[in-house]
Every structure is written in structure tokens, then in C-alpha cells.
Write a structure and sequence with these properties.
This protein starts with a helix and ends with a helix. About 75% of the residues lie in helices and about 0% in strands. α1 packs antiparallel against α2, α2 crosses α3 and α5 crosses α7. It is elongated, with a radius of gyration of 23 Å. The longest helix has about 30 residues. The chain has nine helices and no strands. It is an all-alpha fold and about 180 residues long.
């Protein structure tokens, strides 16, 4: 493709974006929380850019269909995470005894798990609950193995920090606010 073709393609895409962005955003905002709507719309336009040569003459319905599928995928992911949270809460096994120490540990684990970001829970769950290798989990999340390994390491560290007693995670030095009090 020549630079003239690239320029024309880019200008055509910009025009499509300008004509359809507001309508597409309203369409998405009626279906999901407004705080998540721009992410979905961004994904739709990224898909449109990648498949620009395949767009129909009237691209607006195509964009709306991509938005519907994107929201459906997002909802399925949310439901999977909710189901995982429910499974974690209802887990009864030999690791959890009926004694007070075991119960406290389970409550701490549940609280720490719920305190994690959804992305951290997803990374940990793919390996711990779904039994995937780092390479398989990276494929599921659509990233490189090294990227997933970094996410998993950070998620493990956040979980470990959330499980430590409050006194162990508190910094040794006083903050400026504490020094003034």
C-alpha cells in the first residue's frame, strides 16, 4: 500500500469515527455501566481499524453488532469471575477444618481474594482453579507468555500482601501525616 492509500484509509476511518462515535457510545451506555462504555467503544473501533478493508458500505450496523458481541464477551467474563468467587466461597475441603484457626484463615483468604482486582483474580484462577499453564493462560487472555507471567507474579504478590497481618504490611517509617499527629 502506498502512503497515499494509507492517508486515504486513515482519513476515511477518521470520518467513520466522527460520524458514528456518539451514537455508538449512547448505544453501549444504555446496556452497560457508563464507566465501562468507552472501553467497549474503543475496542469496537480497534476492531474496525483492523478489519477496515472488510467493512460494509454502511458500517454503522456492523459497528453496533461488534459492540453487542464485545459487551456479551465482557458479560461472560464477569459471570465467570462471579462464578469463581462463589466457588471459592463455597469451597469445603480438608484444607479448611472446623476449628477457629481454619475458619479465620478461610475468612482471611476470602477477604483477600475479594480485595484483589478482577484481573489479578483472573490470572490466579486460570492457573490455580482451571489448571492452565502460563502459556495456555496467556493464550486465553490474548497476551504473550512473558506478559502473563508478569501479571501472575504481581497477582501472587498482591494476594500474599493481602494475607499478611496488618502489622507486617505497615511501613516501618511514619508517614508525614502520622508524624504531624
Amino acid at each position: 500500500m502506498s502512503s497515499g492509500d494509507d492517508s486515504a484509509r486513515e482519513q476515511s476511518f477518521r470520518s467513520l469515527h466522527q460520524r458514528t462515535y456518539a451514537d455508538l457510545l449512547r448505544f453501549v451506555e444504555r446496556r452497560i455501566p457508563p464507566s465501562e462504555a468507552e472501553d467497549v467503544v474503543s475496542t469496537v473501533f480497534l476492531t474496525a481499524w483492523r478489519r477496515f478493508d472488510d467493512l460494509p458500505e454502511d458500517a454503522r450496523p456492523w459497528l453496533f453488532a461488534v459492540a453487542r458481541r464485545t459487551m456479551a464477551n465482557q458479560t461472560r467474563g464477569w459471570l465467570r469471575r462471579q462464578a469463581l468467587d462463589v466457588r471459592l466461597v463455597s469451597l469445603d475441603g480438608p484444607a479448611y477444618s472446623d476449628d477457629a484457626v481454619g475458619t479465620a484463615a478461610r475468612v482471611d483468604l476470602e477477604r483477600a481474594w475479594r480485595g484483589l482486582r478482577p484481573g489479578d483474580r483472573e490470572a490466579l484462577a486460570l492457573v490455580a482453579f482451571d489448571g492452565l499453564t502460563a502459556e495456555q493462560a496467556a493464550t486465553v487472555l490474548g497476551c504473550r507468555r512473558s506478559t502473563f507471567a508478569m501479571r501472575l507474579g504481581r497477582a501472587r504478590e498482591r494476594l500474599r500482601m493481602a494475607l499478611e497481618p496488618a502489622s507486617a504490611t505497615r511501613p516501618q517509617s511514619l508517614t508525614l501525616q502520622e508524624q504531624r499527629s
